[in-house]
Amino acid sequence: MIALAVISAVVAMCAMAAALWQAREAKKAQEAARNAEQAANRAQEEAQAARKAVEQAATSALQARTAAEEARKEAAQAQEAATASRMLADEAQLTAQQATQQVNEITEALAAERSRRGMPTFAISPGAPDEFRLSYFGGPAVIEQLTVSVVPGSRVLGLSQHDEPPAEHLEIGPLHNGSAITFRAATGQRASAVFQIRAEPWEPVVVRADQ
Length: 211
Prior knowledge:
Residues 34-84 are annotated as: Disordered. With 211 residues, this protein is of the alpha+beta class. The protein has 2 domains: 22-117; 118-158 and 165-201, Sandwich (Immunoglobulin-like). 55% of the residues lie in helices and 21% in strands. The longest helix is centred in the first third of the chain and has 115 residues, at 2-116.
């Protein structure tokens, strides 16, 4: 009986030891499962963050591509506008050159006709900033008196030969063929200065001051 009791006690102790070992192993397994769950949660959070970053990067790339396309369109439009402006400027310059050439041809033709008919011919050229030089040729030997007048729209405010105040009309004479007289004109637009010259008994002549 004693032997059976001892054997039973030993068996019970072994069973208890096995139960304790199984309890420790179960606890370790539970801790490992909890750690695995936490790692899985962290991995899921990192995956969500990575997905958001990818979505933001895709959105930024799309916005950058849209901005680049708009910039290319604006650059193309600016280039087209510059080309059109350049063409308009070229056409305006050509028109101005043609108009100047036509005016010069008409002036030369009138001067030639006046010279052929023995009529006075005049030329006015700018000198100093406020001075003009009136030249006379192609007519009588002497013109006793002529009148230089301001032409409306020529931006000339008045004329004078000496120190007198500027006036709308300036009396000059006598003037010999081939000579020139300097007079002043109150104007800031020398290239657009236009004058009317009257010498009796000939009709008035309009002369532009060329640079």
